[in-house]
Write a structure and sequence with these properties.
By secondary structure, the protein is mostly beta strands. Helices cover 9% and strands 40% of the residues. It has one domain (6-83). The longest helix is centred in the C-terminal third of the chain and has 8 residues, at 76-83. This is C2H2-type domain-containing protein.
Length: 87
């Protein structure tokens, strides 16, 4: 890895507005600088380091494959699930 590159971890909560499915996902985000000094980022699966699409540009529901997805701060889905009376 280039010494100018850094990796951070970010987590997001997602809710599908079509089917109601909710999920949480973590990403490794690598911060790079191109040959002209401009910063850019790439997203990676923290489990295997493989590159994945940005969750911010066109998220897909893993349940129904809809692109009508709300992105929220981490923990929102877990908080909602814990509040359900049958859990």
């Amino acid at each position: 890895m280039d010494p100018r590159e850094t990796t951070t971890r970010e987590e997001y909560s997602f809710a599908c507005l079509r089917c109601g499915h909710g999920w949480e996902r973590a990403y490794g985000i690598r911060h790079h600088v191109d040959g002209e000094g401009r910063p850019f980022v790439t997203y990676h699966d923290p489990a295997d380091g493989g590159r994945v699409p940005s969750p911010l540009t066109r998220p897909v529901c893993p349940n129904c494959e809809s692109h009508v997805v709300r992105i929220m701060r981490p923990g929102r889905v877990y908080e909602a699930e814990r509040a359900l009376p049958w859990r």
